[in-house]
Amino acid sequence: MNTWQLDTAHTTVSFTAKHMMITKTRGIFKGVTGTIDFNEANPSASSVSVVIPAATIETGMEARDNHLRSADFLDAETFPTLTFTSTSIEQKGDRWAITGDLAIHGVTRSVVLDAEQLGIVTAMDGRRHAGFEAKTRIKRSDWGLTWNVGLEAGGWLVSDDVTIELEVAADELAAVIADAKPVGATA
Fold first, then answer.
1. CATH code, 2-175
2. Measured on CA atoms in the order 156, 158, 160, 163, is the torsion positive or negative?
3. Nearest-5° angle of CA 143, CA 148, CA 152?
4. How far apart are CA 108 and CA 18, in angstroms?
C-alpha cells in the first residue's frame, strides 16, 4: 500500500444545484487537500481522506458566495472544513463505489461516491501521478442546510438536491518525500 497526496493545484471539488427550479448554479471549492492510501493490487483495501476549506467556495457571484459561507448555509466561520473519510471501497464493473462519511456543517452522514480511476503515469521527473473522478448526489437538508425561499409560482429558490463532483490528481507520497530537502539544506 502506498500513500498518495492530493495535488491541490490539480484537484477540484465542484457542485451543482438548481436555482429557481429551472437553471443550475455551479460552484467549486479551492485548496482541497487529502490522502489516498492506495493498494494498486487490491484497490478495495484502499482508503481516502479529503479536507475541503468551506470558505473557499466560489460560484462566480460574490454576494452569493458570501451567503453560502454564512450561517444560512455552510457557516464557514463555525465549521471551517468539509471532510470525507472512506469506510469501504467496492468494485462495480470498471468503476468503484467508495462509501464514506461526509461531514458538512457539523453533521456527518454516509454517502457513496461513484468513482473511476483514470490511470497512473510516470512524469518526466520520475514521479508517479494518479487521476480519479468521483460523483455523488446529496440532499443538503440531510446536513441541516435548510435555508430557502418559496417561489410564488411554486417550488423553491434553491433545490435540496446537490450534485458533487471530484476531479482528483494525486502524487505518490514516497516520491514527494524523496525530493524534500532537509531544513537548512541548499540547492
1. 2.40.128.110
2. positive
3. 150
4. 23
Which are the contacts of 21, defined by CB distance < 8 A and separation ≥ 6?
A: 151, 155, 156, 159
Distance CA 81, CA 61 (A): 21
Average pLDDT over residues 76-98: 95
Mean pLDDT, the chain, integer? 89
The three-state DSSP-derived secondary structure of 127-165 is CEEEEEEEEEEEEHHHHCCCCCCECCCCCECEEEEEEEE
Which tens digits make up the pLDDT trace of 101-145? 999 999 999 999 999 999 999 988 888 999 999 999 999 999 998
The full set of domain ranges for the chain reads 2-175
Residue 87 pLDDT greater than 90, yes or no:
yes
